[in-house]
């Protein structure tokens, strides 16, 4: 049986007349009769007593009528739920992010604007490393993830937010401070303060040194940017960071003094992207709320560029 057959059956049961039921369903009577006949054949039982004036439900028909009303109501509820999701009348938007996003994008401000425009959408936010965020993207726990990404896996689509050169963070008195031509081989002699191994920035740095055939020493592994900068400021190691993140974070932290140096060409390009699990044939998120957030973010960036 299918929903259309059940709709025809319920109409006939309530109208107690095939002609009126056909008129109600906006089909010819022969079509409605054929639909009900097919339903009876599929169930191997008669559903109506028929005469020239009206039709009445059999015992089996009465049982089916009660069940059919429940099924059709549930189907209508499902249609309305899907329409509400697509129309942003309900739903959930789950966003994941790495640390120190504020140097590039004002996520709280965007979330506030999104909530004002779509108050019925529940917003969830989590902060983690790239590896964890990627897992959440792939299994559907996160709709959008803001993170540095070297090579997106199959099924993950990315949109570039910014590309920044990595700079060397070190104490202001360090011999490398303020230089603009530091080579990777020179850095091999320095102890490093690094993020954890599954973080996007760490993977980019590890890959760059490996491709250059340069071994380096990771003395500290941390998951907090402020701790990283404090260790660097005390001369315990150097770090490679996107310059806007290093400068913004150092400015926010009291008592931390950081010097900087630049790598010689070619620079290491650190890319911040927004990633999502896309549809098979369309470069867009599966969740309409996620697409609405991307549209809002694009509008904000365009407005900022116009102002500048």
TrEMBL record:
Gene3D superfamilies per UniProt: 3.40.190.290, Winged helix-like DNA-binding domain superfamily/Winged helix DNA-binding domain
InterPro entries: HTH-type_LysR_regulators, LysR_HTH_N, LysR_subst-bd, WH-like_DNA-bd_sf, WH_DNA-bd_sf
Protein known as: DNA-binding transcriptional regulator, LysR family
Coiled coil: none
Domain of life of the source: Bacteria
Pfam families on file: HTH_1, LysR_substrate
SUPFAM superfamilies: Periplasmic binding protein-like II, Winged helix' DNA-binding domain
Protein family: Belongs to the LysR transcriptional regulatory family.
Domain HTH lysR-type: 1-58
Molecular-function GO term, any one: DNA binding
Keywords: DNA-binding, Transcription, Transcription regulation
Organism: Filomicrobium insigne
């Amino acid at each position: 049986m299918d929903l259309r057959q059940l709709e025809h059956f319920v109409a006939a049961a309530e109208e107690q007349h095939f002609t009126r039921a056909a008129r109600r369903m906006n089909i010819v009577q022969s079509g409605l009769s054929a639909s009900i006949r097919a339903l009876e054949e599929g169930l191997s039982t008669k559903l109506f007593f028929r005469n020239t004036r009206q039709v009445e439900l059999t015992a089996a028909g009465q049982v089916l009528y009660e069940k059919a009303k429940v099924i059709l109501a549930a189907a209508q509820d499902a249609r309305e739920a899907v329409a509400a999701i697509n129309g942003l009348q309900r739903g959930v938007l789950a966003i994941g992010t790495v640390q120190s996003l504020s140097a590039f994008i004002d996520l709280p401000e965007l979330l506030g604007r999104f909530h004002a425009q779509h108050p019925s959408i529940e917003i969830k936010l989590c902060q983690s490393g790239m590896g964890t965020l990627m897992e959440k993207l792939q299994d559907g726990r996160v709709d959008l993830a803001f993170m540095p990404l070297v090579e997106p896996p199959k099924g993950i689509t990315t949109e570039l937010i910014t590309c920044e050169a990595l700079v060397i963070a070190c104490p202001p008195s360090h011999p490398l401070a303020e230089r603009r031509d530091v080579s990777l081989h020179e850095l091999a002699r320095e102890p490093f303060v690094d993020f954890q191994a599954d973080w996007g920035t760490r993977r980019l740095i590890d890959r760059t040194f490996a491709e250059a055939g340069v071994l380096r020493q990771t003395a500290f592994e941390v998951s907090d940017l402020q701790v990283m900068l404090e260790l660097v400021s005390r001369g315990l190691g150097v770090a490679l960071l996107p310059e806007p993140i290093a400068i913004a974070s150092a400015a926010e932290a009291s008592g931390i003094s950081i010097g900087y140096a630049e790598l010689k060409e070619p620079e290491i390009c650190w890319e911040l992207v927004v990633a999502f699990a896309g549809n098979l044939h369309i470069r867009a998120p599966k969740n309409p709320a996620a697409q609405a957030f991307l549209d809002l973010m694009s509008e904000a960036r365009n407005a900022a560029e116009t102002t500048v």
